[in-house]
Write a sequence for this structure.
């Protein structure tokens, strides 16, 4: 937990990269409507967006 609180620049950079990459992949996959590859690309984009959300929430988790 302390790692993400202490390294805010790394956290912000990773969140920005994952968010922009995820949104780019979702939008690109959306343009491939009717193709199965578009769905796969959109799912990869969704995983990147969820990873950005996970990194964002990590410093606020309670230690058990």
């Amino acid at each position: 937990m302390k790692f993400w609180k202490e390294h805010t620049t790394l956290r912000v950079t990773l969140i920005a990269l994952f968010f922009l990459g995820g949104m780019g992949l979702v939008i690109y996959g959306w343009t491939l409507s009717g193709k199965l590859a578009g769905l796969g690309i959109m799912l990869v984009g969704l995983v990147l967006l969820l990873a950005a959300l996970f990194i964002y929430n990590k410093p606020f988790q309670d230690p058990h």
In short: The chain has a mean pLDDT of 91. The CA atoms of residues 30 and 38 lie 6 Å apart. The chain has three helices and no strands. The first helix runs from residue 2 to 6.
